[in-house]
Amino acid sequence: MLYSRTLLFIHSTYNSLHLLPPASHSAPPPTPSPLTTTSLNWNQQTFNYLLSLIGSPNAANMGLAPVSGYNLFREAVPDPYWKDIVLGFRKLTLRELDMFPDYSYGWFNTSLILEGRKYLQWLTERLTERGVKFFLRKVESFEEVAREGVDVIINCTGVWAGALQPDPLLQPGRGQIIKVDAPWLKHFIITHDPERGIYKSPYIIPGLQATTLGGIFQLGSWSETNNIPDHNTIWEGCCGLEPTLKDAKIIGEWSGFRPVRPQVRLEREQLRFGSSNTEVIHNYGHGGFGLTIHWGCAQEVAKLFGKILEERNLLRIPPSHL
Amino acid sequence: MDTVRIAVVGAGVMGLSTAVCISKMVPGCSITVISDKFTPETTSDVAAGMLIPPTYPDTPIQKQKQWFKETFDHLFAIVNSAEAEDAGVILVSGWQIFRSIPTEEVPYWADVVLGFRKMTKDELKKFPQHVFGHAFTTLKCEGPAYLPWLQKRVKGSGGLILTRRIEDLWELHPSFDIVVNCSGLGSRQLAGDAEIFPVRGQVLKVQAPWVKHFIRDSSGLTYIYPGVSNVTLGGTRQKGDWNLSPDAEISKEILSRCCALEPSLRGAYDLREKVGLRPSRPGVRLEKELLAQGSRRLPVVHHYGHGSGGIAMHWGTALEATRLVNECVQVLRAPAPKSKL
């Protein structure tokens, strides 16, 4: 029986996963530092897995749908590492660039949207079907859980992981998004500004129902409330990109924290409480691309878990009677 | 110089766009649009309005390409403006898929739409029954928004809109100097045109907001066209069928064909059936005719018969119809030769 801390945050997590549209569109914009081969594999695995589910009648119920769109730049850039992961990647033609007067270069590709709220609901249902139990509870320490007789803790506490074990590498990457009703928009439009940095340039991402407008990234900020300057930054930036947004009805606004870390913490750790060892598998720190690589990471965690089981079984082999 | 009085018969996409073009390009005229049916009850309101042109066997390809390009450019300018939503014009990407490799792999309109290319193997995996495809971005222009937008422009330039059923074009004489006939299937009666016939199309307009791409089987019979606030699923091509009532069996069958291409459509809700009669002809009728009865003369410019390519070609053919109207105006304004009798 594994305790899940995530349920405690489901309220804010539902919203904060909406907040991470570059992730929810499952193909991250280029990161300033080169992504590791591992992350690339996780990205590929996740994309392939989700793509295999397109074509299932349940795709939309899971929060999953294909979406195509534009990545825009002010100058020519090298192709992204994910160009062969997504579908139909190509450079934009001049006529297409005419649609975006502030930008002079870009890409077109088909990717996937995975909406956090629907996906979490769907996953919760699948887990419940398999007998997984959920407990809504605030966990104060690994020790507290270990002392209840848990064998393995899988730590997916995201941006709040530091409360269970200090991690100076983990920081909140605060974002704010505006959700609008703009059903006529069928494409994502993601702009890039290397001077301002990642996620700080306007982006528009159509979801299964509503459209997300964003472009805020504040490293180190824990402010949970929406603020007006950020609202204006998003609104002006996105309306500049897509003038028809002036007719869009605003249906919500949210703030959330991307769990930013130089790299994802995906590793085992043995903790000793009293006389027993508790195995911990950490899986947090996915920044703004959690949904994009989540399945690859989950499979990696499962592998590590399998190793733990193997090791434990070895320890339990009865002594030979020979 | 007297004002030339022009009557446009028909208030579908042809009538209204021609009226707008005339108001912009023909000086010194008054325009009245006369019809018994207006949006949302015209054939143009049922059409999905996808800019994927058909082929007119009797029209030179260069001409068709010109009409399509002029229409595309006109709507592209709208989609890039803040008016896009008012006018019901959106950008949409997707795929046209083939069950066998076509003889012509690149259609004449490939460089008119945006980003045209062949589908990759990975993209085709989504459609196991199909072996080839086109991927591109095009425009969708929706009657229920576009027609009111055009009507506003007609009125804004001083044009009048009149609800009246015309049984005979001579009714317009002598109140009007030139008639522009955009009456679609009505021309069977109004223009005595035996060549025009309906091709019945039934569609379902459904709610499935997660569908962001169009999918069109190259036969043109099965298609999924996501629009501003619904998705059009189609369709049928029933030649000579005048029946405007939806057929429940056909609706089931359309849904089934579309779900085969896009299984998530099984979750579509709020399904509404619609029927439109495509005004079909071997070619668009775009020509002048001088009606004569005794000493009465009535110049007519015919502009109808676009079949399944109405929205896709409307602006290009409206421009041409306007040129013909201009020619009629020049003739009317030319000093009359004095009779020597």
Q: Indicate the low-confidence ranges of chain A by residue numbers.
A: 1-34
Residue share in helix of chain B: 25-40%
How is the biggest beta sheet of chain A arranged? 9 strands, mixed
Number of strands of chain B: 15
| Strand portion of chain B | 25-35%
How many distinct helices of chain A? 9
Could you name the CATH homologous superfamily of the domain at 64-113 and 170-260 in chain A?
D-Amino Acid Oxidase, subunit A, domain 2
CATH-assigned homologous superfamily of chain B? NAD(P)-binding Rossmann-like Domain
- Radius of gyration of chain A equals 21 Å
How big a fraction of the residues of chain A is strand? 25-35%
Q: What is the helix/strand order of chain A?
A: HHHHEEHEHHEEEEEEHEEEH
Amino-to-carboxy terminus distance of chain B: 26 Å
Organism (chain A): Muntiacus muntjak (Barking deer)
EC number (chain A): 1.4.3.3
Cofactor (chain A): FAD
Catalytic activity (chain A): D-methionine + O2 + H2O = 4-methylsulfanyl-2-oxobutanoate + H2O2 + NH4(+); D-lysine + O2 + H2O = 6-amino-2-oxohexanoate + H2O2 + NH4(+); D-alanine + O2 + H2O = pyruvate + H2O2 + NH4(+); D-cysteine + O2 + H2O = 2-oxo-3-sulfanylpropanoate + H2O2 + NH4(+)
Explain what this protein looks like in three dimensions.
The complex is a heterodimer of chains A (322) and B (341). Chain A is an alpha+beta fold and 322 residues long. Chain A has a domain at 64-113 and 170-260: D-Amino Acid Oxidase, subunit A, domain 2 (D-Amino Acid Oxidase, Chain A, domain 2), CATH 3.30.9.10. Chain A contains 9 helices and 12 strands. In chain A, helix 3 crosses helix 9. Residues 1-34 of chain A have low confidence and may be disordered. Chain B is of the alpha/beta class and 341 residues long. Chain B has a single domain (4-333), classed as NAD(P)-binding Rossmann-like Domain (Rossmann fold). Helix content of chain B is 29%, strand content 30%. In chain B, helix 1 (13-25) crosses helix 9 and helix 3 (61-79) packs across helix 9 (310-333). Chain B is elongated. Chain B starts with a strand and ends in an 8-residue tail after the last helix. Chains A and B meet through helix 4, strand 1 and strand 2 of A and helix 4, strand 3 and strand 4 of B. Chain B: One of its GO terms (cellular component) is peroxisomal matrix. Chain B: FAD binds at residues 43-44. Chain B: Residues 5-323 form the FAD dependent oxidoreductase domain. Chain B: Its EC number is 1.4.3.1. Chain B: Keywords: Cytoplasm, FAD, Flavoprotein, Oxidoreductase, Peroxisome.
